[in-house]
Amino acid sequence: MTRGSLTKFILHLHPRLVPEASAKVRFTWCLGGIALWMFLLETATGVLLMLHYIPSATGAYGSVQHITHVVSYGFLLRNIHYWCGQVMVALVVLHMARVVVTGSYAPPRSLNWLIGTSLLMFTLLVDFTGYLLVWDDRALWAWTIARNLAETFPMIGPLSASLLFGAGDVGDSILVRLYAWHVLFLPGIMIVVMGWHFWRVRADGGISVPL
Ligand code: HEM
Fold this sequence. Notes:
The chain is mostly helical.
């Protein structure tokens, strides 16, 4: 990348002008920004957890117990990963509520509102697939319910259920499927959609001002 385009990229990330009213913490509460920080923390702790997790029906639960009780600082790492995930869900919902309360969903920001709703869906999905990866009793039944529910969706039900939650009986292939969604596809899609979301904030004239 040339020096010129790097400067343009940085200037694009950091707008030269921010309306004073929308720069006040009391307007946005920085909820979207803190949600992004949670995502980054999830990525960092998730990569470390990957070093010990085994994505198979027979190995998953044991490897999570190993992380919690044997691996140095594994207990801490797992708890940070778990709690940041829950906090991220709460932050995204609160961020959405802030956008509603300040009327920031209205044109020209309607497209970014729609992009945001997809981010909410992906955040819930990545949280849910993570919950399933522990593969204890709760995860097994949550997986069963989610798969049966997805199957009832008109037309695309059976296909989407097997794409998301795996086909056939409980086995290793299901854990590999859930693992791939949790650590690769969903975060990958989210990085692209978040980039689009932030770019739209700029393209729509920056953060809205109080009504
Ligand atoms: C992973 C989830 C999300 C992240 C990381 C995120 C991040 C951000 C950030 C950093 C901003 C700049 C202003 C602020 O911090 O409030 C923003 C603005 C915005 N977000 Fe999100 N967001 C997410 C999800 C959502 C959701 C679920 C919605 C609504 C359905 C949404 C709708 C909007 C809209 C309309 C704006 C422009 C608001 C304005 O100009 O005042 N976002 N988002």
